[in-house]
Automatic annotation (TrEMBL):
It holds the Pfam family Branch. This is Uncharacterized protein. Coiled coil: none annotated. InterPro entries: BC10-like (IPR044174), Glyco_trans_14 (IPR003406). It is a single-pass type II membrane protein. GO terms for molecular function: glycosyltransferase activity. GO terms for cellular component: membrane. The chain crosses the membrane at residues 28-49. Keywords: Glycoprotein, Glycosyltransferase, Membrane, Transferase, Transmembrane, Transmembrane helix. It is found in: Membrane.
Length: 402
């Protein structure tokens, strides 16, 4: 019997071995499957936890707003702190604090041409006069202008277009301190002169408080005090840009037929380079892309763009916006290509009063006025001391600012 059981066991051994092998493989496979499942579960769990943590960290409860530096506010901008803070830097958009920038002329003109669609300003605003000086270097009559501007901060802005190589800075106490704009070389009678004028206008237009824009040279002087000048301009319904039809050789004789048909001979005008314009007309000037290229190509000496471009442009696009006269007096009685230059011996009270009150003109298209000119040129640097001495008594300037 024992022998029989042993033999039977021997016979069943392969079957038993096979069964053990199958069970062992099953356990191994089950172990592998379990490990893989656990790995997948742990991975899914980690992703879920990570997602919840990130969502929690960026939730509203734990959001920290960025720290915004507090802006200082000067009277010249007249922007309340609440307005500037609420609008996130509105002040720098409506009144750049720095004159220097990296914009190209094309970029500058484009930005300056922007006009708000909403007429009401969202901040306190005092209208200002932009005084734009076209000069080669320092202003030789700067002390006289300092007297003119004294105690009227917040009612004017100053812009200096100088030769690019001029880098001298005015004293920090001066109204001309850091008022130079990015400039380029200028040639008299060439298109670069108009480029400089449009560059000045565009930079001044970046300040939305500037409403009147006056172009001046380094030889210009004011003929009245600041209050009189400011009142005269802001009570006026017109700009002051002379534009007239000159039938002489130096007028119509400079017209180039290649300008036709965009500009005809009947459109052709002449006028003074030294203008004063309000904001609406200033935007028209710097936005012109139609007539400027024609002038640049076809108005070259003996055609001078500074005498014909703006007068013709105004006649073409907005003839009703100007009084057709200038408010900067010059003496052309001597003939030639340039007006008379005045030196020290010329500057007397009688001479200045003749320029100030010796003319009659229409003001606002109505009553006649004896004040026709607010500025005059060309004054030599050696006239400075005489002007400073007469300024308090004759012009009403504050003598303490000399």
């Amino acid at each position: 019997m024992k022998q029989y059981n042993f033999i039977a066991s021997i016979k069943e051994l392969p079957t038993h071995i096979k069964r053990e092998i199958r069970e062992s493989n099953f356990r191994i496979a089950a172990t592998i499957i379990l490990c893989i499942s656990m790995s997948i579960f742990i991975f899914i769990l980690s992703v879920f936890v990570n997602h919840r943590v990130r969502k929690f960290l960026v939730s509203d409860e734990l959001y920290f707003p960025p720290i915004t530096p507090t802006l200082s506010h000067s009277s010249s901008c007249n922007v309340s702190s609440s307005s500037s803070t609420k609008n996130g830097g509105l002040r720098e958009w409506i009144a750049p604090s720095e004159m220097w920038h990296l914009m190209t002329d094309k970029e500058l003109l484009w930005r300056a041409s922007m006009v708000p669609s909403i007429a009401e300003f969202p901040y306190k605003r005092t209208p200002k006069v932009a005084f734009m000086f076209l000069t080669r270097g320092r202003l030789p009559l700067a002390p006289f202008w300092e007297m003119f501007f004294k105690d009227h901060e917040g009612f004017f802005s100053i812009y200096l277009h100088t030769s690019p190589e001029f880098t001298e800075e005015a004293p920090e106490s001066s109204v001309f301190y850091k008022r130079r704009i990015p400039s380029k070389p200028v040639q008299w009678g060439r298109a670069t002169m108009i480029d400089a004028e449009r560059r000045l206008l565009a930079n001044a237009l970046l300040d939305f408080s500037n409403e009147r824009f006056i172009l001046l040279s380094e030889t210009c002087i004011p003929l009245f005090n600041f209050t009189t000048t400011y009142t005269y301009l802001f009570n006026s319904n017109h700009s002051y840009l002379s534009s007239f039809d000159d039938p002489r050789r130096m007028g119509r004789g400079r017209y180039n037929q290649r300008m036709w048909p965009a500009i005809s001979l009947s459109d052709w005008r002449k006028g003074s380079q030294w203008f004063e314009v309000h904001r609406k007309l200033a935007i028209q000037v710097i936005s012109d892309v139609t007539y400027y290229p024609i002038f640049k190509d076809h108005c070259k000496p003996p055609c001078y763009m500074d005498e014909h471009y703006l007068p013709t442009l105004v006649t073409k696009v907005c003839p009703g916006l100007t009084s057709n006269r200038t408010i900067t007096w010059v003496d052309w009685s001597g003939g030639g290509s340039h007006p008379t230059r005045f030196v020290r011996k010329d500057v007397t009270e009688g001479f200045l009063n003749q320029v100030r009150y010796g003319f009659n003109c229409s003001y606002n298209g109505g009553d006649m006025s004896s004040i026709c000119f607010l500025f005059a040129r060309k004054f030599h640097p050696n006239t400075l001391q005489s002007l400073l001495q007469m300024a308090p008594r004759l012009l009403g300037f504050n003598s303490s600012s000399a």
